[in-house]
Design brief:
The chain has one helix at residues 8-76. The chain is built from 1 helix and no strands.
Length: 77
C-alpha cells in the first residue's frame, strides 16, 4: 500500500492559516473585553441618569407639597 503524500503547498497554506488565527486571537480577545467594559459603563451611566430623574421628580413633588402648605397656612392666618 503506498503512503499518501501531501503537496507541500497545501501544508504550507494550512500552517499559515493556523499562524494567522493564533496571531489574531489576542487582539480579538482584547477587543471583546473592551466592548464588554464599555457596555457595562454605558449601562451604569443609564442607571445613574434614571435615578437622577427619579430624584428630581421626588424633589418637584415635595416642593409642590411644601408650597401648598405655605399657601394654606397664609390663607388661614
Amino acid at each position: 500500500m503506498p503512503t499518501p503524500t501531501v503537496n507541500s503547498q497545501i501544508t504550507d497554506a494550512v500552517t499559515q492559516t493556523n499562524v494567522k488565527v493564533l496571531g489574531e486571537s489576542p487582539a480579538q480577545a482584547t477587543a471583546l473585553a473592551y466592548q464588554s467594559y464599555s457596555n457595562a459603563v454605558g449601562l451604569a451611566l443609564e442607571n445613574a441618569m434614571s435615578t437622577q430623574g427619579g430624584m428630581q421628580q421626588v424633589a418637584n413633588a415635595s416642593t409642590s407639597s411644601v408650597c401648598t402648605m405655605i399657601i394654606k397656612a397664609g390663607a388661614s392666618a
